[in-house]
Each structure stands twice: as structure tokens, then as C-alpha cells.
Amino acid sequence: MDRLRSWLHAPRPAVPEVRVTRREGLHLGILLALASTLAIVHSFLRYGIYEAKGYDLGIFDQVVRQYALFNAPLSSVKGVDFHILGDHFHPILALLAPFYWIWPDPRMLGIVMALALAAAAVPVYRFARRRTGHAVSLVAVAALMISWPFQAMVNWDFHEVTLGVPLMAWLVWALDGQRPWLATVLAAALLTVREDMGVTLIAVALVMALRRFWPQAALVAVLGVLGYWFATSVVIPHYSPTGDFGYWQFQALGPDMGSSILTILTRPWEAAAALVDHPLKAALWLLHLVPLLFLPLLSPLTLMALPILLSRLWNDRLNVWAPVYQYDAILAPLLLMAALEGAVRLSDLLARRRRPRPAGTGAGSHASPPMRRLPAVVASTALATGLVGTAFFPQVFPYHRTLTGDMTMTQHARDLDHAVSLIPDGVCVEAADNAVPHLTARTHVGLHGDIGDELATWMIVDTSVAELGGWDPLTPDQALDRAERLGFETVWERGDVVVLRHPDRAVSPTCTQYLQHR
After folding, report:
1. 335-353: per-residue pLDDT in tens?
2. pTM of this prediction?
3. What is the DSSP letter of 465?
């Protein structure tokens, strides 16, 4: 029991907070500048060659653009007059409005994303410096910045979870540095990132309790419960067209949260089996843990990752199990810091077995070579995984395409670019998913079939794809049949791209006023 208690209660930092010299700060800054530049280049290339999508870049561009205009966050990509807070709860996006006062362009979100990921690396460096030297801490930062979750985030174009990545990383740093009230504030800020962060706060509260931050743990737990209820039972139903929260997708556990919790408590073997019952699920576990040598399992910090990870694996949708989604990015710094803490715990355990422990020293206080060596091993292994993966596995490490010059303008992309140039400003247009981000700055653009039958005067159809994007997407054939039925006529066609126009329909004020302050 004493050993279990010793494992659960977090050690004090391995060394006091280390002062970072100007030279060390310069090294860190150069590394983050290089990594951020790579992320921005990859993001800009995706946009330039028409690989960026309306889902999600077009949606978030519209939302931030509306905030910048001091309008309600309506996204026509989601539907006519669709209030985005009826989809997910992420009011933190309003803080991005000033960036659009500088440059109102979808690519600005790529810059914001790179800055957010770099901001998450700073606490990882400082966390590592409490346990090891400057060089190893830089290796840990490099491993994070080139990790597959960060590459997947950049390759997704943008997502609200981006803004949760630095919040989570700084939260872990605050807990590790015995700053429970700062951690509480950061945990509360997570509630503005996404509605399901309320559940994550329960796990944060548990870790706080294990560290004996009792008042803060109680407060964070209450905030988590209230935050989840407020987002999913008040705000989202209020703005949702259907009047309810539409993202309960855990039918394998139960039709609602209550029944799902009951399943987990009364039939835990079924719930556990559902976490590994598909090759993609097993791959997701392994991709998170193998590069870190399974050392996160030795740290209670990993408990904070479970709500996000388990919600992915218990989800009914097969595609969210794949290691290509943005959701993993918020876990990357957390699990890396947990691995570093786990490395120190393991080293400390080995040191205690080798020799008697000096009286009065805290866990992790040993400065023996084994303790310093194991964090270096885990950081180096994580970096090597990222480098090898980027070199040989582009499906999971998409920076491969940027670094090898594979992201080039195809004839199909040129056709889409010309099609976009034919669309006048201020009109309503239905477009294929990959054309949408290029139209959000000057039109009221939606996906095919998602803005009704009366608004659009122009259409762009991409016949090379299986579906044209959206929650319930049309196929190209369905879109062309619908266009013919509504009276649209083809005005330009080349390759797989078709541009159509309605000859008689006037442009609605809904279209012309969408990009104005209302």
C-alpha cells in the first residue's frame, strides 16, 4: 500500500525551477521558429493546391470572419443562418478576431495554428528542464513539434482543439510546479475550447486530488460538471436547428450519458473490450505509447488524457479511430510530459533498489546518471520516431509531402482555381468541399444541398471525388441532377470541374450582406 501511495502522489519537481539563460532561450526560439515555419509552409501549400477543405477550414474561416465583423458566428458551410454554437461550444474562437483585422484570409488560421502549437512546446521544455539538461529538453521539444499528432493537426487545416493544445500543456506545467490555482484557471479556460472538455476537467480534478490540492480539485470537478451541462444542455440546444445536442455517438455503450456510465460501471469488461476491438483502435494506442516507450503509464498525468482518448475509441464512427485526426494533438504534450515524469519515476525506483535512499530527499531528487539517461532515451526515441515516420510513412506523417516536394499544383487544382475565379463577389454559391476555402472571403458559400434550393446562383461541382463534402454529402451525380432540376446551366467545364449558373435568379440580400457588419 505504501508503494501504491508513493506512486500515486506526484513527486516534487526533480530540480527547482531552472533559470533559462538567454543563450538557451535563443536555441529554443530558433527550434520553434523552424518548426512553426514548416507547419505554416505545409498549411499554405495545402491551401494553394486546393487540398484544404470547407470542413473544417471553410467553417472556421467564416466563424472567425464573422466575429471580426462583430456579427454572430454564422457559417453558411454548415447551413443558412447556422449559428456555430449550435454545433459545438467553442467561444474561445472569438479571441481570434484581431488576427483577421490584420489579414482576413483562411491562411491566417494556419499561422495561428502554428503559433498555438509552438506555445504548447514552451511548457514541455520547462517541464523537461526540471528533470534533465538543456540539450535533452530541446530534443523533447523537437520530438513534440514533429510528432504525428501535431502533423495531423496541421494537415487538418484548422480546428478549435488547436487552441486547447497550449492550454493543456501549460496546465500540466502548472500542476508540476505546484501552482494549483494557475492550473485551475487554465482548466476553466479549457471549457471554452469544446463542450467535452467538461469531462476532461473531471480527470484533471482527479490528478489534482492525487497531488492533494483538495480545494482546487473540488472546484475543477464542479466546473467540469457545470461546464458540460451548460454547453450541452443550454447553449448548444438553444442555437441548434434541431433544438438538441447532436453529437452523442456512443450507442455501443448506451443511448445517453447515464446509460453509458451504467454500462462502464456494471459491465466494465464490455467497455474495455470496445477499446481494442478494431485494428485502427489498436494502432491508435500503439502510436501514442510505443514512441514514448509506454512510460506515460507510470505517470498519473496520463489520467488527464483518458476522457479524450476513450471518447474517440468508444465512438460509433470508424473514421475517428484513425491516427489522422486533430484530436490527438491535445494529447501529445500531455503524454510526452507524462513519459518524462514516468522516466524519472522508473529511474528513482531503480535507484532505490540499488542503494539506500538518503534521508530527507524527495522523489525524483536523485541526480544520478540513470535518472538523467532515461528521459534522454525517451525524448530521443520520440524524436527518432517522428523523423523516421516523416521520411517513410506519409499516411501518418504528412510533412513528408512538404519536405519531399510532393505538394505541387496539379491540372485539376488549376481547373478548380479557374472555376473559383469565375464566381462573382457577393453571391451565394454552392461549391465542392475543396473549393470552399477559396470562396469564404468574398461570397456566401455553402456545400451542395446545404443552403436550400432558393439562394445559390452559382455552383462548382468536382466530379473527381466520391462525395462533395458536408454532414450528409451529395455525390457529384446527385449534385448535377439537382442543378439541372433547379434550372442551372453549365457555363464552363474542364476536366472534372463544372461551373453552373442560374440564368434567371437574382442575388438575394442574404448573399450580399453576409460579409458585412449587421
Report:
1. 999 999 999 999 888 887 7
2. 0.93
3. S
